[in-house]
Design a protein that fits this description.
The complex is a heterodimer. Chain A is mainly beta. Chain A has one helix and 32 strands. In chain A, a hairpin with a 6-residue loop joins strand 30 (about 345-350) and strand 31. By secondary structure, chain B is α+β, with helices and mostly antiparallel strands. In chain B, the strands form two sheets. In chain B, strands 3, 4, 5, 7 and 8 form a five-stranded antiparallel sheet that branches. Chain B has a three-stranded antiparallel sheet with strand order 1-2-6, with no helix packed on it. In chain B, strand 7 and strand 8 (about 150-160) form a beta hairpin. Chain B is elongated and about 65 Å long. Classes of the chains: A mainly beta, B alpha+beta. At the A-B interface, helix 1, strand 2, strand 3, strand 4 and strand 31 of A face helix 1, helix 2, helix 3, strand 2 and helix 4 of B.
Chain lengths: ~375, ~160
């Protein structure tokens, strides 16, 4: 081949190939549909993976449309489905993407999640007879279970024993209050104290601190079986909602709608509420002993605060137009449970200890009326 | 397809090794053939982008017997794992009134019962009743997305009182 011939040939060839080196592949779309029904439907949704390289999260019942997929076969996989939900088809399948939008549909039916051996939340739920009943649910809000039928009777203020095997609570009887105990299955009802309410079990599970009305509403102490009842305070002011410090050496309680701390024998009672407090309620000590959680009431809504046991470090955790009441710690102290009317229903809510990550736990019937959460270990 | 891909020009230029006298010729032809290789014509598959997809659904409400009309709005967020929506404000317009955006963050958090949504979550509206007479209601929701920080979005959703 002579050089002129080569030049001509190359020119022709390059002309023929000009602009032909890169051709974009033909692209299509894929719509993935997820549908779940039943009880305790997966709340945080599912994960859809395409070719194990691209992942998106979508609601348990929801859709997502992938675009820019090369026409041809693709693997689609659904993960993140909770154990109580079963799919009628394979969770991994091959889908052919063409010129029209391809569709992959996953369906699942969910069953009620069984109650876990620990980490349960007991709470009081208002029912159709306008009384409270005791319910329990898992720490994530699944498995809501009514503990026992108590038609016409109010049962509330649940408090777990440290081993999580028993629940103490307040029951309204003949116009008065009594403290009773049942086991975690809701059976074995035993009355422990009369004219009494607001029970809290000591860290060593040997004692119960509570409120008893004799001449005034005072803080009392009794053995875990209800024996040896005696008062710790005799102040004329209204006192309520005592709870133990995690080491059992102190008790925080309300006196005249202010927070007080005293030694476990009733000595050295002193206020820790700040001077601007109007009504501080439902104090509970954090599991690590560094904070006391409570609700501050005033001229607006009730909101959740923390304060150090020495009365410093007042910190608001909730805000808004709804009342946030009955706060308590999760057993490990990482979360706070409380009752709130946000969303139009009085439900049990959870948030992290710093007030972030707000999440509704109890979903219940159309109009639940849930209060007084208590977390077991 | 191209001429090259059909093999027309490429076949005409098939190398004749015995006639090649110069190394440059070999290189040039090899380069040319490489350019015309049918295996080279497809570009790399594009990176699949996964934008947030917010799905709205409204259900009409009724007002009868003195009860307020309370249409329901459902919303779910789909998108990259870990993506999050945060509500910032809410507005509303009825047939009688222009948009009222005096619904602050606190209000919109109550309307949705939370401060936002994570990808994979869904929620329903609450606590917004209307007396009879309002037939067509338009809600306007303002929010930000963690996937596009600094950008505010607004979606409008219509609902009926029947």
């Amino acid at each position: 081949m002579t050089l002129p011939a080569l030049a001509v040939t190359l020119t022709l060839m390059l002309t023929a190939c000009a602009g032909t080196e890169i051709i974009a592949p033909t692209l299509g779309s894929l719509r993935v549909e997820s549908s779940m029904s039943g009880t305790d439907v997966d709340r945080d949704g599912v994960i859809i993976a395409v070719d194990d390289t691209t992942q998106v999260a979508l609601a348990s019942t929801g859709t997502y449309t992938f675009t820019g997929l090369v026409v041809g076969s693709h693997q689609v996989r659904l993960t993140g489905i909770t154990a109580n939900c079963a799919s009628s088809g394979s969770l991994q399948r091959t889908v052919t993407v063409g010129s029209d939008t391809a569709i992959a549909t996953f369906t699942a039916v969910c069953e009620k999640v069984p109650l876990a051996p620990n980490g349960l939340i007991a709470f009081a739920r208002g029912d159709s007879d306008h009384t409270w009943d005791l319910w329990v649910m898992n720490g994530d809000g699944t498995g809501e279970t009514k503990l026992r039928d108590s038609p016409g009777a109010t049962e509330f203020q649940p408090a777990w024993t440290r081993d999580g095997q028993y629940i103490l609570f307040t029951t309204a009887v003949n116009g008065g209050f009594e403290i009773a105990r049942i086991n975690r299955q809701g059976t074995g009802f035993v009355t422990l104290a009369t004219s009494a309410y607001s029970p809290s079990v000591s860290p060593d599970s040997q004692h119960i601190v509570f409120v008893k009305e004799v001449n005034a509403y005072d803080i009392w102490l009794m053995n875990i079986d209800g024996t040896n009842q005696h008062s710790l305070t005799t102040d004329a002011a209204y006192e309520d909602h005592p709870t133990w410090s995690p080491d059992g050496s102190q008790i925080v309680f309300e006196r005249g709608y202010r927070l007080y701390v005293m030694n476990a024998d009733g000595s050295n009672a002193h206020s820790i509420s700040t001077a601007d407090a109007i009504e501080d309620r439902w104090p509970t000590w954090s599991p690590d002993g560094t904070k006391i959680l409570f609700t501050r009431r005033g001229f607006g809504q009730d909101h959740v605060f923390t304060i150090r046991p020495d009365g410093t470090g007042l910190t608001p955790l909730t805000s808004g137009l709804d009342n946030d009441d009955f706060p308590t710690w999760s057993a490990d102290g990482s979360h706070i449970l409380f009752s709130s009317g946000r969303g139009g229903m009085l439900s049990i809510w959870s948030m992290r200890a710093d007030g972030s990550g707000l999440q509704r736990l109890s979903l219940g019937p159309p109009s639940p009326y849930d209060s007084y959460p208590a977390s077991s270990r | 397809m191209t001429l090259c891909a059909r093999g027309l020009a490429c076949r005409a230029l098939a190398p004749q090794p015995k006639r090649m006298k110069h190394l440059s010729t070999v290189v040039l032809v090899a380069v040319a053939l490489g350019a015309c290789d049918a295996n080279k014509i497809d570009g790399p598959p594009p990176t699949i982008v996964t934008p947030v997809q917010l799905q709205w659904h409204s259900s009409p409400g009724t007002s009868s017997g003195g009860s307020a009309c309370q249409p329901t709005i459902d919303v779910s967020l789909a998108g990259p794992v870990g993506a999050r929506l945060t509500w910032t404000r809410m507005g509303i317009r009825t047939e009688e009134f222009a948009y009222d955006e005096n619904f602050d963050l606190t209000f919109v958090q109550r309307f949705w019962a939370a401060d936002g949504l994570a990808a994979g979550e869904s929620t329903s509206s609450n606590q917004m009743g209307f007396s009879s007479g309002f037939v067509h209601i338009t809600y306007r929701f303002m929010y930000t997305l963690s996937t596009t920080p600094g950008i505010s979005y607004t979606d409008s959703v219509s609902a009926l009182c029947e």
